[in-house]
Specification:
Strand order of the largest sheet: 1-2-3-4-14-15
Low-confidence stretches: none
CATH class of the largest domain: Alpha Beta
Mean pLDDT: 91
Structural class: alpha/beta
Helix content: 10-25%
CATH topology of the largest domain: Rossmann fold
Strand content: 25-35%
Shape: globular
Number of helices: 10
Distance between the termini: 50 Å
Number of domains: 2
Amino acid sequence: MSDAAIQVVEVESGVDPMPQFEEVWARGSRVLPVVRSMPPIARAALESRVASVRAERAAGVVLPTSGSRGEPRLIDLSLEAMLASAALGARVIPFGPGDCWHASLAPSHVGGLMILMRAKFLGGSVQFGAQPRAWRDLDGATHVSLVATQLARLLDDPTPLPSTLRAVMLGGGPSAHTLHDRAIARGVPLYATYGMTETCSQIATGRRAIGDAATLAGPPLPSVSISIAPETSEILVDSPTLARGEFIDGALVPLTRPYRTRDAGFFDDRGRLHIVGRLDAMFISGGKNIHPEVIERALCELPCVRAACVVGVPSAKWGMRPVAFVDLRTQTGRFIREMLSETLERHLVPDAVYALPPDELAATKPSRARLAALLAAGQRFNEV
């Protein structure tokens, strides 16, 4: 194994990558986890950028993250920041020896990486196996991290939950309160959470109850400072879990403190954080601000929709207009726009609704940037 400052390590679902990670860290290098199925051209471009990095040697993890933009940004996470994240998160959702966290998310993303790091720093174990599509896939697990699509598929399984399951951490973007209420009514121990790669995953977490707003993320973790910029409603974060920085043109640029997340949010009267949406995903249509997340939540409230992604497209008349991509639970998506018009203001109803393409369905969460680029390139999609 080379002595490069950043060492690429291939990862795949169901296989424990920690022995390889530990070997890289013992050599004083950073791990860059890359899924084995990554397209060759994208991998070559990523490895070329990594080869140009000029940085002091330090153990840690470099994660590519696009957010809602195009070319992946390279975020440098220290072992100390990941330890802080694991320890602070365990003060809200206890995890330690005797517990088992199902590896439901890929370690090439921060949510999946932190499953491994909690076990490393806090004890407990990681359950490697099939991606959870039925409750039996979680037999023996005490904890699991899910995105909305995964939870929706599990709720379609009528069999009982595993008796061992104590915490289901739901993240990865907007989800509907009807999904949350269905889960809680089934007995799912559901926790809302909010975080990002730059903060080593979760920085706000709380147990959900029936009737909670879809926007709820929960109170800040202990020792995490979260504030709201008065002019823009941007969420600002200062935390011991912050990344060392970002590699830009081969050099490590430290994150500013407080870190500007580019997410808009607010606190309720109980001190709980709510997430409105991405500031850099918002667009203006006919003079009105549109947060795609508002439409995505409304779509996911419909019984025929399992997951949704909304992007803005150019319009000669309005400047920009929303279009939606959906994963249908049933084949009754024909009247989606009509159903949305009953709950959304007229300017928020998408001009078109398409089926999510298979590659986006296979991802942890759909990419607005990729879908918008395909639309701009003239690719046609199946309208529902």
